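Next comes a concrete protein, fold included:
___
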Amino acid sequence: MSRILISHIRFWSRFTPQNDEVLGECTIKCMENTPVMTPPIQKRPQIVGEVYLSVIIPAYNEERRIGKTLAQVRKYLDAQPYDYEIIVSDDGSQDTTIPIVKIIQEGWPQLRLMATVNNQGKGAVVKRAMLTAKGKYLLFTDADNATPIEEVEKFWPYVETFPIVFGSRHCRGAHIHIHQATHRKWLSRASNLLIRFVAVPGVWDTQCGFKLFERNAGKNIFANVKMERFGFDIEAFVIAQKLGYPFKEVGIDWYNDFDTRVRTGREAIRTLKDLFRIKWNIMNGRYDRVGYIQDFTLPRRS
């Protein structure tokens, strides 16, 4: 573990500016290379503390990947014309994930760490971060960076119409560059078909870890989410429908990481149990009692 920690210290030391002049030059170069497709905001907000995008990264024993992922996220977001924050929501990691993130925090004020002592589940730590995030838009993405942060640019054209825009590996426009093992691929497809049939008709990929929420929609939805593990995505869509929020599925570029923390068989069983718990809740009208904690305003449909 100490070797991994030392390697991250050396890696991130390269990002520390030597003086204000160097920092200014880097900022100018980043702005010059900003992609043509940008969000509606054309300049940084003038109100102190205003955050346009919150990026939530759930993490569990991610010491080998979290440093690289955060470096890629920072490189992209520092070049954008809006203010942002990053929330790493740790789920009781037993390795050096938390010390690594704390080291990176020292030179990155936009980075926040939320940690819990015990493992609670991905759904629990995503919910906790969603409810504390400050951004106008809330994006959660996986720690393996399977969907590059740049893919968020595909979402901006839809945010004025849809309060929820999410990435998909299985709809038109999606490109899978590194494929999963055959058994994982077929299990994923079978799971998606079952989820569509049982709980969320019309959605091709509920489980892709790249979803963007308008702030009020995200907080209203996740305040009602009860599933603490991988079934939380499914429940979030069911609650969104009950609350009247439309959503848009967008094909994204996706790269499988073979060094995954997910154990196929065990998590498939857990997700299946959650799916049928959700179906039971639907049949018994439990989601008819969901409510709002923020203003409810639907975007204007064009």
Q: What stands out?
A: Strands lie at 53-59, 84-90, 111-115, 137-141, 164-168, 175-178, 210-214, 247-251, 253-255.
